[in-house]
Amino acid sequence: METLYHQTNKQIQEVQSLMGRLENTDRQSVHLLENELQARIDQIFSHLERLEILASKEPPNRRQNAKLRVDQLKYDVQHLQTALRNFQHRRYSREAQDREREELMSRTFTTNDADTSIPIDETLQLNSNLNNAHRGMDDLLGSGSSILTGLRDQRGTLKGTHKKMLDVANMLGLSNTVMRLIEKRATQDKFIMIGGMLLTCVVMFLVVKYLG
């Protein structure tokens, strides 16, 4: 396991080094570097699957530490995967804007029988609408993230309140029926919270799908 662990850790460091070259790579070669990075990340994920199996076979006194080390590697490579996808998303957006700008600049006069005009206003309006849609999606995603964070915080608050209520109930010697009612209400609140999170995720997915 040690050999594979150090090999995987070295690969992660190499990917981190290559990630720093993305911003300075020319447009003609950047997709080749992206493909190389993705291939290396996929290989790391494959090694992590093997490491998880090996960690589970470690002696009991070393198993927990082995799993923690593998989890740390997994966290690092997931962070790299997210960074690569974010870079690709920004690159796609820049290329789309460049294409729109080139199309606008390449538009020529359209000749009619009586006059000559330049259809620039329509193109500018379309570009403005696209930018507004992108900003709206970013704002909505940010709001959805804030809502999910709030729901997680609310869950923690509810769990704390539930524990305090149980402690007070024990101190006052309340009946088992009252205790069950308290636990039932806490369970209902938990389902409501989960339902709210799922609904928020569905709304965000639909917005991204139809506005994107």
Automatic annotation (TrEMBL):
Q: Which CDD domains does the UniProt record give?
A: SNARE_GS27 (cd15863)
Please provide the Gene Ontology terms (biological process) for this protein: intra-Golgi vesicle-mediated transport; protein transport; vesicle fusion
| GO MF annotation: an example | SNARE binding
Per the record, what is one GO cellular component? SNARE complex
**Where does the chain cross the membrane?**
191-211
Output the InterPro entries linked to this UniProt entry.
GOSR2/Membrin/Bos1, v-SNARE_N_sf
Q: What is its main location?
A: endoplasmic reticulum
Query: What keywords sit in the KW lines?
Result: Acetylation, Coiled coil, Endoplasmic reticulum, Golgi apparatus, Membrane, Protein transport, Transmembrane, Transmembrane helix, Transport
- Bilayer topology annotation: Single-pass type IV membrane protein
Family under the similarity heading:
Belongs to the GOSR2 family.
| PANTHER family xrefs | GOLGI SNAP RECEPTOR COMPLEX MEMBER 2, VESICLE TRANSPORT V-SNARE PROTEIN VTI1-RELATED
Cited function = Involved in transport of proteins from the cis/medial-Golgi to the trans-Golgi network.
Question: What is this protein identified as?
Answer: Golgi SNAP receptor complex member 2
Q: What organism, scientifically named, is this protein from?
A: Hucho hucho (huchen)
